[in-house]
Amino acid sequence: MSVRVQPITRDEHLAFVAARPSASHTQIPSWGEVKPDWRAESLGWFDDAGQLVGAGLVLLRPLPGPKLPGLPRYLAYLPEGPLIDWHEPGLEHLLEPMIAHLRSRGAFAVRMGPPVAVRRWSAEAVKAAIADPAARRLRDVRATSFEPRAGQVADTLRRMGWRQTEPGGEDGFAAGQPRYVFQVPFAGRTLDDIRAGLNQQWRRNISKAEKAGVKVVRGGYEDLPAFHELYSETAERDRFIPRPLPYFQRMWSALTAEHPDRMRLYLAYHDGEALAAATMLTVGEHVWYSYGASTSRRREVQPSSAVQWRMMTDAHGLGAAVYDLRGITDTLEESNHLLGLLRFKVGTGGEAVEYLGEWDFPINRLLHKAMSLYLARR
């Protein structure tokens, strides 16, 4: 099959996404507006008959430092994309024209994150691994299920010259999008089924919040400062660098302009005080718990559990097939401060999922190495 890759319009891109059961929120046109440091372009894959058979959002980041003569030089990044048939026998025929197009745009390297699941671990398997002193990383624990075709995709990429990036740091998170995530399957399950699948502590906490009178409401743009105040407190407590308020304001404006339900904000109140909040993203049948925030005050009324259950309830009402709690640590050691977050997510009764991770194709090896060193220092 002969395929050509060329820019497409925003409407063409959105129509292609809408025709699929799901796509990553990082592969929709509006995501480019959330990332102003990058230049965004929608790409389309066309077959011999002129039919659109793939699409992708590519983010172009200029090489730091003084401008070089000639074309501007970019790192081309397709987070959790592109949206193509990754199990197409001639996968290289879909990727080669993409590389050629991006080279013509001045890309010195291409980075992408194939949305291809490799392994899955049930909640029971993860709990057993956490309890096992000999288990140090999830990747070393026997998975509950495997996707045999994922290995074929990885083999093709290596044969083409793509290099897999390793999860960064001690916590197993990738440098870009997470390689390990936790998801709760919703397809074919009633809301009662989903609640019954939660562990005892989760169900108890939801009941506590209900009895305490915690009220969860949907917020709007004007509630983002309240969310951000809680989020900043969470960042200090959990030792991560928070994003600034304008990031979330930009995210809200861009995503809700594209679709009114693309991004939602939920806040949990008790006696008139906001105690917890979270954002939820939806593309097709895939719903993500995106950012969570809470205060240390009055934790006994379980406001975070109330927010999560309201989001899961609403996601089910929207027809979600998957409720995605996003990144988890790969490290199972008690000393890791992210293990508590993993335990929290395991309580949903879902499953840990490993994806293929992110891959680099160096077009100009020298510039690619320079950018890698720059990103590592950052």
Automatic annotation (TrEMBL):
InterPro entries: Acyl_CoA_acyltransferase, FEMABX, PG_Glycine_Bridge_Synth. GO terms for biological process: cell wall organization; peptidoglycan biosynthetic process; regulation of cell shape. GO terms for molecular function: aminoacyltransferase activity. The keyword Protein biosynthesis does not apply. Keywords: Acyltransferase, Cell shape, Cell wall biogenesis/degradation, Peptidoglycan synthesis, Transferase. Pfam families: FemAB. It is an enzyme of class 2 (transferase). Its EC number is 2.3.2.16. Belongs to the FemABX family. This is Lipid II:glycine glycyltransferase.
